[in-house]
Amino acid sequence: MINRIITHQKNNSFFLFGPRGTGKSTWLQQEFSKIPHLYIDLLNPDEEERLAKNPGALLAQIESLPKTCQWIVIDEVQKLPKLLDVAHLCIEKHHKLFALTGSSARKLKRGHANLLAGRAFMYHFFPLTHLELGTQLDLHQALQWGSLPKLLQLQDPQDKIRYLRTYTQTYLKEEIVAEQVIRKLDPFRMFLEIAAQQNSEILNFSNIARDVGVDTVTIQSYFQILQDTLMGFLLPPFHESIRKRQRTNPKFYFFDLGVKRALEGNIGLDLPEGNYGYGKTFEHFVILEALRLNAYFEKDYRFSYLRTKESAEIDLIVERPGAPLALLEIKSAKQVDERDIRTLRAFKGDMKQKTEAYCLSRDPIPKMIEGIHLLPWEMGLKKIGLHPK
């Protein structure tokens, strides 16, 4: 059994948002296995239909609980946002505690759902991190297939391919079609493949719109759908001026490597070490690890990228409260040297604020060259503060 590193306050209600298949339900069942609780599973069609017809039935059910049953767990609450009004009432009137999970924030946001006005903390759940996998981490497997928990149970590569293809089909069926998010599915299906191919690149909305055959505004709304359904995130450009940041296009990263490769149609192909695709996938992997650990350990770090007009680029910039700006170059090489830090060296001298520069790679030997840290990627993430204190 994999121990997840997420923690929650034991005496406060909370939302837990994360994509499907990341293990939210399993974690909840383990977390509350020894605690009296009422479990409402809205993925159960009968349960969903019962409460959709009569949300008040949940209130009656809760009011009949013994006093020793303090917690109510509602899995996939976005399917019935009206239940949040019941939760609000029960928190205020009956002093109950709620654990509320969701794989999409879209319906809650668009429906102006009751998010309990600060009475419930907000947490996020992700595929497995390297800290959770520990000695079970196989980096090549993680780059090839991603790190959704189900994949640990599958040994046959063909089964992994089937699972990831099914995952993307389920996303279209249950998150997009069932929720009536868009009117026409074919352009969105084409968009998903192109978005996966453009993963980690600076977005050119006009070019993507031309390829998909829709307008730019529609493409921007499609990327918003991906964010709302927790399929990925935007990485903004860095600039000391917030106004200038907003004028430059962001990058987009899918939440999982395997899902991204399935969407672009490459999941059946091997990922050979050393080529361009391998390097981009490793960069994606390290950035995902950084964002996941930041969320789990509640570091409040801010992430961005930086590219000049001459196309020199820093893969990841980390703004850390109370600490110098961290500039990260991510290299998939097993051996790095001064040739790999030329861009870092140039940027480090040009930044107006105090900075620290890091080159994170698969090189197992830590080095320091001209004040720049060349570190194994795991050590680098720890060095910049993305571990618990």
Write up what this structure looks like.
By secondary structure, the chain is α/β, with parallel strands linked by helices. The protein folds into three domains: 112 residues, 3-Layer(aba) Sandwich (Rossmann fold); 116 residues, no CATH class; 107 residues, 3-Layer(aba) Sandwich (Trna Endonuclease, Chain: A, domain 1), CATH 3.40.1350. 40% of the residues lie in helices and 17% in strands. It contains 16 helices and 13 strands. The strands form three sheets. The protein has a six-stranded mixed β-sheet, with helices on both faces. The chain has a five-stranded parallel β-sheet with strand order 2-3-4-1-5, sandwiched between helices. The chain has a two-stranded antiparallel sheet with strand order 6-7. Helix 3 runs parallel beside helix 4 and helix 10 crosses helix 11. It is globular and about 70 Å long. The model has no long low-confidence stretch (mean pLDDT 91).
Layout of helices and strands, plus pairs?
Layout (H helix, E strand, L loop, with lengths): L12 E5 L6 H8 L5 E5 L3 H9 L2 H8 L7 E5 L7 H11 L3 E6 L3 H5 L9 E5 L5 H4 L5 H7 L11 H21 L7 H13 L7 H8 L3 H13 L3 E4 L6 H4 L5 E4 L2 H7 L12 H21 L5 E6 L5 E7 L5 E6 L11 H9 L4 E7 L5 E3 L2 E5 H7 L6
Parallel strand pairs: 1-4, 1-5, 2-3, 3-4, 10-11, 11-13
Antiparallel strand pairs: 6-7, 8-9, 9-10, 12-13
Helix pairs in contact: 3-4, 7-13, 8-13, 9-10, 10-11
Notable traits:
single chain, 389 residues, alpha/beta, Trna Endonuclease, Chain: A, domain 1, six-stranded mixed sheet, 17% strand
